[in-house]
Amino acid sequence: MTPTDTTPDKPVSDVIVIGAGIMSATLAVLLKALDPALTIAGYERLDAVAAESSDAWNNAGTGHSAFCELNYTPERPDGSIDIGKADKIAEQFELSKQFWASLVQEGVLPDPASFIQSIPHMSFVWGAANVEYLRKRHAALLRSPLFQGMEFSEDPAQIAAWIPLVMDGRDPATPVAATRMAMGTDVNFGALTSSMYHYVKGLPGVNFQLGHEVEDFRRKDDGIWRLKVRNVATGESRIVRGRFVFIGAGGGTLTLLEKTDIPEANGFGGFPVSGQWLKCQNPAVIARHEAKVYGKPAVGSPPMSMPHLDTRQINGQKELLFGPYAGFSTKFLKQGSYTDLFRSIELGNIRPLLFAGARNLGLTRYLIGQVLQSPQDRTAALREYYPTANPADWQLEVAGQRVQVIKKDKKAGGVLEFGTEMVTSADGSMAALLGASPGASTAVAIMLDLVQKCFPERAASPEWQARFRALVPSFGQKLAPNPALTAAVRERSRQALQLEH
């Protein structure tokens, strides 16, 4: 039976969000904080929130702040270090911390220890050329107030005191170096997302439904979006209506965006990348490591594949992971379909897909190599960061699925992007978020930009401007050129989130 939409007085939600991950949760909480009278409907095809990319086991959980991620600080041809992207990401994560701190203070979020912990962020390299790169990176980053306090060492004894597993059994003749930022964090985005949904679902005018899949979109002359929504359990479909729609369905966003038929969606494609972790099973080993240690990614690898030996706190349990090992799957979601990639191909994105593929043959070869890795290969990669690792202590776990953005480019035909991309309709009634890392960590910055773009008149009003500043005290100001403001907002966040540093 085809659902109909003939009832003239059918309810219309102010906002419809699709997907129950960190992005949709952040937007829903932010909008209700700005205007409690807004009505919000939400739909998630799975029977749980945060079950895909926001889940703790599917997400790196670093709290990406560019303290340790070396791909955010590329070396220029003249040998200098470009810290522009690092500054941007560090500032975006500070916005997230400010927002979470406000939600804790207002009683929206529970005990912050349920979702955020203090943990040093470290970069570790070996070899003379890499040591020189890390030295220059450290000096360049110290020029920004966002990286004040970062330590650097080439002393094996000092590094061993910081990260004993990494130095155990390492060849003393090999030059090594490390940077350490004590104020790093570990974030359980699954727990954070669940807490946000628990809060917002209890507010008046909010209706979130799990086990409901959005199948199609239509917009009539009245400007209202009609969404065809199917109950996954019963198979029954109905039409729901909304004035503004946000698609925050992770890897599922691209396929849904294509169904909206907005011109701005034309030309976007997706390249799926899967991942795996080695999870430590030995409590004695886990107890000896207390840091997130990132190294240099392999040539041709995607940013999500930066190797790291990673202390995590997941559901009250200390964990130790290494990876991720990249792979390729035609699924766009971990719980998706192997036809996802093929169903996303349409006339408007064939050319960008072909050109981006031709320009990234190295990435393709890298992924094929990762797929063909043996257990011995994975152990060898682990031992680059933990030389005395015993493979019996480690178990392979499947991580999340990511979809990297491919978009049109006038010069190149099509380019593969390794970040996030917000697509909005010209009238601001539809928005969709594509892409992957460092998405979750920068959710607040992304949603603040979305609200200002899609609700411009209300966002500019004195009432919303005051509320923005109450939730995010540095709103509208740049932290990088302002050491005093940076220090003040960090201390506020540290106290509210009960962080150690």
UniProtKB/TrEMBL annotation:
Enzyme Commission (EC) number: 1.1.5.4
* Catalytic function, reaction form: (S)-malate + a quinone = a quinol + oxaloacetate
**UniProt keyword list:** FAD, Flavoprotein, Oxidoreductase, Tricarboxylic acid cycle
Pathway annotation from the record: Carbohydrate metabolism; tricarboxylic acid cycle; oxaloacetate from (S)-malate (quinone route): step 1/1
| Top-rank taxon | Bacteria
Q: Name one GO biological process term.
A: tricarboxylic acid cycle
Q: Could you state a single Gene Ontology molecular function term? A: (S)-2-hydroxyglutarate dehydrogenase activity
Record keyword Metal-binding present: no
Query: Is Oxidoreductase given among the entry's keywords?
Result: yes
Instruction: Give the matching NCBIfam families.
Output: mal_quin_oxido (TIGR01320), PRK05257.1-1 (NF003603), PRK05257.1-4 (NF003605), PRK05257.2-1 (NF003606), PRK05257.3-2 (NF003611), PRK13339.1 (NF009875)
Protein name listed in UniProt: Probable malate:quinone oxidoreductase
